[in-house]
Specification:
Number of strands: 0
Number of helices: 17
Largest sheet: none
Structural class: mainly alpha
Order of helices and strands: HHHHHHHHHHHHHHHHH
Shape: globular
Helix content: over 70%
Oligomer: single chain
Length: 445
């Protein structure tokens, strides 16, 4: 297949070809995360599955720093490449990887220290067994947190290096390792939830180490490790550029915790199980939106750095059309496949099955609009406008959903919980298009 460069003109076909590895990589990352849930729910039991889902938002919050460095760092690196300064781009890559490792170790130590109080707070209305399971799973996962951050960041760095297919293959390798070890540790060795967490850790180590080996050696990509310099300005710009992705994941995790608390009130542990299943499906569907946006971001950043405004304008229009088509298709798929997808995780408990199915049918309506705000945030990140990008993400992932999940259940109880995300996506889509219109003159798209 012909190699596609960041500097090229992109039609619909070329745009989809270039972003496809990123989409598949993001979806596959979600799939192998879900493997833990499948094994735990079907082999270990409901309490273990509820415990895993209870603590997962906290783990995602800690790991989100890797996404911040990946998206924000890639925006800066691709802009620098567009300006023709390859040496500086390589130094940035090396510096960011070191920073990620340092942050990863610090956050892992913090996570270990606060795991029990966090689990007890989140599981206030959960059973004691569920809380203890969440502590066990969370503590083991802290051992590989630096590698999780690296894996998240390298997904973006590989695309910027014009090696999205290689990034996908590394993700597949890590996922296969995780899946095989899940079968060995859970089904064969009977290690239960600890086996699931251990398999996840080893998979994350593989996903974090392999890109380091690649960039440390002579390679055919745009990037390679070069002796880094401590550059505070670059670090701050990266954090600002990637703040939207960080806020998105932190906000989503906080909202996930709030969803669990609300569902524990209305449905007990069964509500946490239902929400966990819906979130696993959501990870796959959201992975398509995020994967496309992550894949196209370096292209946008490159043409912004090269001051190619016509290509930037063309890309914006094409991406919005693609998000619309994706939204229609994914909403239809989610509605049509809701029953078999629910059956993968919930088989023997009819009450929980019905609860999950009802929630999935209502939640899936949000996919119709979800892609617009995801792309809008990534678009402004690529333009190195972290403020607008973070504003879209913050409103979408936290403010709108927070208000909805607190207010709607007052009137519609558990139905209000499921519809909160739909309410949030309507408002965030309006904010996204207002932001695109307001910034059009400034960026010339």
């Amino acid at each position: 297949m012909q190699h596609i460069q960041l500097s090229e003109h992109f039609n619909f076909k070329k745009l989809l070809r270039f972003t496809l590895p990123s989409i598949v990589m993001t979806v596959f990352t979600s799939v192998y995360t879900i493997v833990d849930g499948v094994f735990v729910s079907n082999v270990v039991g409901d309490n273990a599955f509820a415990g895993l889902n209870l603590i997962m938002p906290f783990i995602i919050i800690l790991g989100a720093v890797g996404l911040m460095f990946g998206s924000g760092g890639s925006a800066l690196i691709s802009k620098t490449l567009g300006e023709g300064d390859e040496d500086r781009a390589k130094r940035y890559l090396s510096f960011f990887v070191i920073a990620i490792i340092v942050f990863g170790v610090v956050f892992a130590l913090v996570g270990l220290a606060v795991m029990r109080p966090v689990a007890e707070l989140l599981g206030k209305n959960a059973s004691r067994e569920t809380v203890e399971n969440s502590i066990l799973y969370g503590r083991i996962c802290m051992c590989s947190l630096p590698f999780l951050m690296l894996q998240y960041s390298f997904q973006s760095f590989m695309i910027t290096a014009e090696k999205p297919t290689l990034g996908f293959l590394i993700t597949v390798t890590a996922g296969v390792v995780n899946g095989i070890l899940d079968a060995v540790f859970i089904a064969a060795f009977k290690w239960g939830l600890a086996g699931a967490a251990t398999a996840t850790c080893i998979g994350q180590v593989v996903g974090g180490i392999l890109p380091i080996v690649y960039f440390a050696r002579k390679n055919s990509s745009l990037l390679k490790f070069k002796r880094p310099r401590f550059e505070l300005r670059a670090l701050l710009r990266t954090c600002a550029n990637g703040s939207s992705e960080l806020l998105t994941n932190i906000s989503s995790s906080i909202i996930g915790m709030l969803y669990n608390m609300q569902l524990l009130r209305f449905a007990g542990d069964g509500g946490v199980i239902a929400y966990g299943v819906i979130m696993y499906v959501n990870m796959i569907f959201m992975g398509i939106f995020f994967g496309f946006s992550m894949g196209v971001a370096p292209v946008l950043g490159y043409h912004y750095g090269a001051e190619n405004r016509e290509e930037l304008k063309s890309l914006r229009k094409k991406c919005l059309i693609i998000m619309l088509v994706f939204g229609i298709v994914l909403t239809g798929l989610a509605e049509a496949l809701s029953r078999p997808l629910t059956a993968i995780f919930v088989r023997d408990n009819r009450e929980v099955f019905d609860l999950t199915l009802d929630g999935m049918l209502l939640y899936s309506i949000a996919y119709l609009l979800m892609g617009f705000s995801v792309f809008g945030s990534a678009f402004f990140t690529a333009l190195n406008n972290g403020l607008v990008s973070a504003g879209i993400s913050f409103l979408r992932a936290l403010v709108f959903q927070l208000g909805a999940v607190l207010i709607l259940p007052i009137f519609w109880k558990i139905t209000g919980v499921w519809l909160a995300v739909v309410f949030a996506e309507v408002l965030s889509t309006v904010v996204t298009f207002v932001s695109l219109a307001a910034m059009q003159k400034k960026y010339g798209y």
